[in-house]
Design brief:
The complex is a heterodimer of chains A (553) and B (340). Chain A has 553 residues and is of the alpha/beta class. Chain A contains 16 helices and 17 strands. Among the domains of chain A are: 169 residues, NADH-ubiquinone oxidoreductase 51kDa subunit (Rossmann fold), CATH 3.40.50; 63 residues, no CATH class. In chain A, helix 2 packs across helix 4. Chain A starts with 26 loop residues before the first strand and ends with a helix. The C terminus of chain A is likely disordered. Chain B is mostly helical. Chain B contains 17 helices and 2 strands. Chain B is globular. The chains are: A alpha/beta (553), B mainly alpha (340). The interface between A and B is large, with 64 and 40 residues. The complex binds iron/sulfur cluster (2 copies).
C-alpha cells in the first residue's frame, strides 16, 4: 500500500467534461476508406521507408523502420496496397504537411503471420532490441519511443515503475475507458515492463474522478503475481504530467536537468502498457489506438480505430458534428492544438479529438495588461513566476527569461487559465523559447566559424614558423630548436582539432530540454517559425502594449 | 480557435475589482452609521471623478475606453481614497485627490497594471502635503459630536462649507485619536490618562474601531474568495503589532497599545485593501511577507515619530519603491531545482 501521497504546488481544476464520453463502452471501428500514415508520429528521427507505391502489404507489416536511437517504426494498420508516398496534411501544431504513406485497404484486414511468444522465456536484451520494430511510443500523447525507456533489468537502475492513469486533462477519457475495460491487458503489460526493468515497486496513479477505473485496476492488480499498487491522486490538472505524478506518488522531484530514469524512476502511460502486452504476448505491432471523440458531436464516446483513419470517419462514428462546429482540437483543451483540417489522420499521439464550438470554447474576453495579481504564479505547477516570464518574453529580455527558468515551463497552460487579464501567456513562452533556441543555434554556428578561422590562422602562423625555423636551420644549422618548435605546433594543432570536433558534436545534439517538454511543446519546437508568426499575428494587443511601453519610455 | 489553452477560468479583472468593492461595503456601512452619511456623498463624488478622469485619459492616450473603464479598477482607487479622507471633506478636495490619483499616479504611468505606486495613496499623500489642515480635521464620531448634521446639512457642508445656523465647527470636529495621542504624549501626559479621554474607545479610537472591525470582515471575505492571499494582511498587522507591542511592554506610559494601533487609523483598511493592491505590490509569497511586515513597522515609526497623524499611506508608498528589489530577491524555488 502507498503509505502517503505527496503534493506539488499549483495546478488548476477546470470543469472535467468527462462524463459525456464515458457513457458507452469502447467501440471498435472497422477500416474505412484510404488510410494515411505520416512517418512522423513520434518524437525523434524520421523512420526509413521500406515499401514502394504498388506494394501489397499485410496488417502489422513494417512499412518504415526506426532510424537511430530515438525513432519509431510505422506499420500497416490493415492489409492493402501502398498507393503513394508523398507530403500530406498531418495532425501537427505547425499545420505543415509531412511525408506520409497512403494505403488502400483490400478489405480483408489480413494480419501478417503473428508469432505469440512466452516472454518469460526470452532474453531481456533481445526483447529490448526487438522493441525497435514494435512501433510502440508513449501512447498518452507524448509519443516518445518506448524502447529507450525499457532498458534491460539489472543495469537499468530503475527502482520505481510508475504507470500513469491520471488522465488529468478535461474531456479526455480514453485511458479511463481502457482501464475500466482492459485492466488485465494493462497489468500484463506492467508485468512485462517489470520483467524488463526489475523495479522494487510498481505504482499505478489514477485521479480520484475515475472510481470505476480504479476498481478495475485494483482487481486486475490483485490477480497479478507482481505486486502492483494502485494509488489514487486528487483530481488536479496537471497531475498526469510525468514529473508531477512522480512527485505526487514518491515525493521525489526529478531534477530539472535530469531524466526520471536518472533518479531510478520510469513512467509509462497505461495505453503504452497495453501496447507492450500486445506486442510481446500476441506479436501485434501498433496498428490502432483508442481515441476519445467528444465536444460538439452527437454521441461522444471512445473508439478503437486503425491508425491513419481520417478524423471525419471518427466524427461520423460519434454521430457527426453538431451545428456551429468551428474546428477540431487534438488532445485536451489545455495542451491540445487545433487541427489544420478535418481530413487529417489519426496517429499514435491522437488520444482525443474535440469538436469545438463557441458554446464550449467561447472567444476569450479582450486582453488587459498584467495586474501582477500572481494568480498565475499560484497556479504554476513548476513554481515559476509566469508574470515575470511574461514581462521578459514581451520585452525580448531573453537572458532574463532563461535565468527565470523559462525552459522549465511545461506549457501546461495553468497560468493562462487563471489569468484575469486573459493574457495568452503560453504563447509568449513558446515564442521566447523558440527565439532563444534560434539565438543559441546562431551563436553556436558563429562560434564554430570563429574557431575554424582561428584554427586557420593558427595553421598559417604555424606554417610561417616552420618556414622561419627551416630558414633559421639552414642559416644557423641549429637542429634541436626546430624540433622543439615542431612538437609544440603539432600539439597545438591537435588540441584545436579536438576542440573543433567537440564543438561540431555539440552542434548536432538537440538543444537541452526539448525532450523534457510536454508532447505539444516538443512538437512546437519543431515548428517554431510558423508558431512565431502566429503568436505575433494573434497578439495585436501585446504589440500595442509593447509599443505603449516604448512610448512611455 | 488560436492557441491553447482553449478554456479559461472565469475570473476577470473586472470581477476581481468588483469583489474588492463589495468587500468594502461593510466598512462603508459602519462608517456611515458612525460618522454620518456624508461619506456616501464623498464616495459618489470620488467615483464620478475617477471614471471621468479615466475615460478622458484613455481617450487622450488613444486607448480603447470600454474594456478599461469597465475593469472597476478606477472605482477601487476612488473608494479607497474616499475612505481615507476625513469625513465631510470639501468636494474640491475629493475631486482634486481623485484626479491626481487617476491622471498622474495611474494613467500617466501607463494605466492599469503599470503604476509603480498605489494611486489612492499617491492621491492621499499629495492632499496631505498640500492641505494639511483640512486633511487632519476630522468630524467627531456622531456619539461624541455635540451637534448632529442631517444628510442635507452634510451635503451643504461638503459643497459649500456652510454649517446650519448655531452650529460651530468645534461642535462637530475633533482631533483624530492618533493626533490627540501624539500631542498629549508630547505634553508628557501619561498614557493611562490619555486613553481615558472620550475619543478613545474600548480598544482603539472610538467609532473607527468598529469601522476597522468591518474592514476586517470584508478582508476575510477577500481571502475566502481568493482575491488576496493571507500574506499581506497577516504580515502587516503582525509587523505593526510586534513593534508596537515591544515598545508597549518596555514603556507602556509612553506608547499606545498594539490593540490601539491595529484598530486605530487606517491599519485595517491598509492591511486588507491598500497594501494588497497587486499592481504596486510584490508577487512572491516571501516578498509579500517582507513588504507587508515592513509597512507595519514603518507605519508605527511614522505614527510615533513622524509629523503626520497616520503612517499607512507613506509606509505603503515607501515600500512600493522597494517592490522590484523584493521580488528579485525572493524568487521561490523552482520545481526540480535546488535551493535558490
Ligand atoms: S495572472 Fe495574469 S494578470 Fe495576474 S500576474 Fe499573472 S499574468 Fe499578470
Ligand atoms: S505554462 Fe509554464 S509558466 Fe504557465 S503554469 Fe504551466 S509551467 Fe507554469
Amino acid at each position: 500500500m502507498i503509505s502517503r501521497l505527496f503534493k506539488f504546488s499549483g495546478g488548476v481544476h477546470p470543469p472535467e467534461h468527462k462524463l459525456e464520453s464515458t457513457g458507452q463502452p469502447i467501440q471498435v471501428l472497422p477500416v474505412s476508406g484510404t488510410l494515411v500514415l505520416p512517418l512522423r508520429q513520434h518524437v525523434g528521427n524520421l523512420p526509413k521507408i521500406l515499401v514502394q507505391p504498388g506494394d501489397h502489404v499485410l496488417k502489422g507489416q513494417l512499412l518504415a523502420e526506426a532510424v537511430g536511437a530515438i525513432s519509431a517504426a510505422v506499420h500497416a494498420p490493415t492489409s492493402g496496397t501502398i498507393v503513394s508516398i508523398e507530403d500530406q496534411s498531418i495532425p501537427h501544431p505547425s499545420g505543415l504537411p509531412d511525408v506520409s504513406i497512403t494505403l488502400n485497404p483490400d478489405g480483408e484486414n489480413r494480419w501478417m503471420p503473428l508469432n505469440p511468444t512466452d516472454w518469460r522465456q526470452r532474453d531481456r536484451a533481445e526483447m529490448i532490441s526487438s522493441l525497435r520494430v514494435s512501433g510502440i511510443v508513449g501512447m498518452g500523447g507524448a509519443a516518445f519511443p518506448t524502447q529507450i525507456k525499457l532498458r534491460p533489468g539489472g543495469g537499468s537502475g530503475i527502482k520505481t515503475l510508475i504507470i500513469n492513469g491520471a488522465e488529468c486533462e478535461p474531456y479526455i477519457t480514453c485511458d479511463d475507458m481502457l482501464m475500466r475495460e482492459r485492466a488485465d491487458e494493462i497489468v500484463r503489460g506492467i508485468e512485462i515492463a517489470h520483467y524488463l526493468l526489475g523495479p522494487e515497486k510498481c505504482i499505478v496513479g489514477i485521479e480520484d474522478n475515475k472510481p470505476e477505473a480504479e476498481r478495475a485496476m485494483r482487481e486486475a492488480c490483485a490477480r497479478s503475481a507482481v505486486k502492483i499498487d494502485v494509488a489514487v491522486v486528487p483530481t488536479l490538472y496537471p497531475s498526469g504530467d510525468a514529473r508531477r505524478l512522480t512527485a505526487l506518488l514518491t515525493g521525489i522531484e526529478v531534477p530539472s536537468d535530469k531524466r526520471s530514469s536518472d533518479v531510478g524512476i520510469q513512467v509509462f502511460n497505461v495505453a503504452t502498457m497495453t501496447a507492450v502486452y500486445r506486442y510481446f504476448s500476441l506479436g501485434e505491432t501498433v496498428v490502432s489506438r483508442i481515441v476519445t471523440v467528444t465536444g460538439n458531436v452527437a454521441r461522444p464516446g471512445n473508439f478503437e480505430v486503425p491508425l491513419g483513419t481520417p478524423m471525419t470517419a471518427l466524427l461520423e462514428a460519434a454521430g457527426g458534428e453538431l451545428p456551429n462546429t468551428n474546428g477540431l482540437i487534438m488532445g485536451g483543451p489545455m495542451m491540445g492544438f487545433s487541427l489544420p483540417s478535418m481530413q487529417v489522420p489519426v496517429i499514435k499521439a491522437t488520444n482525443c479529438i474535440i469538436a469545438s464550438a463557441p458554446r464550449l470554447f467561447p472567444a476569450p474576453p479582450p486582453v488587459l495588461p498584467c495586474i501582477r495579481c500572481a494568480r498565475c504564479a499560484d497556479a504554476c505547477p513548476v513554481s515559476l513566476q509566469p508574470q515575470e516570464l511574461y514581462w521578459f518574453a514581451k520585452s525580448q529580455n531573453l537572458d532574463k527569461a532563461r535565468e527565470y527558468k523559462l525552459f522549465d515551463c511545461i506549457e501546461c497552460g495553468c497560468c493562462s487559465y487563471v489569468c484575469p487579464s486573459n493574457i495568452p501567456l503560453v504563447q509568449y513562452y513558446r515564442f521566447a523559447k523558440s527565439e532563444i533556441i534560434a539565438q543559441d543555434k546562431a551563436k553556436e554556428a558563429a562560434n564554430l566559424a570563429r574557431e575554424r578561422n582561428e584554427f586557420r590562422l593558427e595553421r598559417i602562423e604555424r606554417e610561417k614558423q616552420e618556414r622561419a625555423a627551416k630558414h633559421a636551420q639552414r642559416a644557423a644549422g641549429a637542429k634541436a630548436e626546430s624540433a622543439d618548435a615542431d612538437a609544440d605546433a603539432a600539439k597545438k594543432a591537435a588540441i584545436a582539432a579536438a576542440m573543433e570536433r567537440a564543438k561540431a558534436q555539440k552542434a548536432e545534439v538537440q538543444p537541452k530540454n526539448t525532450e523534457d517538454l510536454s508532447d505539444a511543446a516538443k512538437a512546437e519546437v519543431a515548428a517554431i517559425d510558423v508558431r512565431r508568426a502566429e503568436a505575433t499575428a494573434a497578439e495585436p494587443e501585446a504589440a500595442n502594449v509593447v509599443k505603449e511601453k516604448q512610448e512611455n519610455g | 480557435m488560436s492557441a491553447p489553452p482553449y478554456i479559461t477560468g472565469n475570473t476577470t479583472v473586472s470581477a476581481l475589482m468588483f469583489k474588492v468593492l463589495l468587500a468594502l461595503v461593510p466598512g462603508i456601512v459602519a462608517y456611515a452609521w458612525l460618522f454620518g452619511s456624508g461619506i456616501l456623498i464623498t464616495l459618489a463624488l470620488a467615483s464620478v471623478t475617477a471614471l471621468a478622469s479615466e475615460a478622458l485619459m484613455l481617450r487622450l492616450r488613444r486607448r480603447p475606453i470600454m474594456p478599461f473603464l469597465s475593469d472597476n479598477s478606477a472605482l477601487v482607487t476612488a473608494w479607497l481614497l474616499a475612505l481615507a479622507l476625513p469625513p465631510l471633506a470639501p468636494w474640491w478636495l475629493v475631486v482634486v485627490g481623485t484626479m491626481f490619483a487617476i491622471v498622474v499616479a495611474k494613467q500617466l504611468y501607463g494605466g492599469l497594471g503599470y503604476n509603480p505606486f498605489n494611486p489612492a495613496m499617491i492621491g492621499y499623500a499629495v492632499l496631505l502635503i498640500s492641505f494639511p489642515v483640512i486633511m487632519t480635521q476630522w468630524p467627531a464620531p456622531l456619539e461624541l459630536a455635540q451637534a448632529r448634521l442631517s444628510f442635507a446639512d452634510q451635503l451643504a457642508y461638503i459643497f459649500g462649507r456652510v454649517l446650519p445656523a448655531g452650529v460651530q465647527l468645534d461642535a462637530i470636529s475633533t482631533a483624530t485619536p492618533l493626533d490627540y495621542l501624539k500631542t498629549q504624549l508630547k505634553l508628557d501626559h501619561a498614557m493611562t490618562d490619555i486613553v481615558s479621554a472620550p475619543v478613545f474607545g474600548a480598544f482603539g479610537a472610538k467609532g473607527s474601531e468598529i469601522v476597522a472591525g468591518a474592514y476586517l470582515l470584508g478582508g476575510l471575505y477577500l481571502i475566502q474568495q481568493r482575491i488576496i492571499t493571507w500574506h499581506i494582511p497577516v504580515a502587516l498587522l503582525g509587523g505593526l503589532a510586534a513593534i508596537s507591542g515591544l515598545f508597549y511592554v518596555i514603556d507602556p506610559q509612553h506608547h499606545a497599545s498594539p490593540m490601539f494601533h491595529l484598530l486605530g487609523g487606517a491599519a485595517m483598511l491598509g492591511a486588507f485593501f491598500i497594501a494588497t493592491d497587486p499592481v504596486s505590490g510584490p508577487t512572491t509569497p516571501r516578498g509579500k511577507l517582507i513588504f507587508a511586515a515592513s509597512i507595519g513597522v514603518l507605519t508605527w515609526v511614522i505614527r510615533s515619530y513622524g509629523g503626520y497623524p497616520d503612517g499607512v499611506a507613506f509606509a505603503v508608498l515607501l515600500m512600493n519603491l522597494c517592490v522590484p528589489l523584493i521580488d528579485a530577491y525572493t524568487q521561490p524555488r523552482v520545481f526540480g531545482h535546488g535551493k535558490s
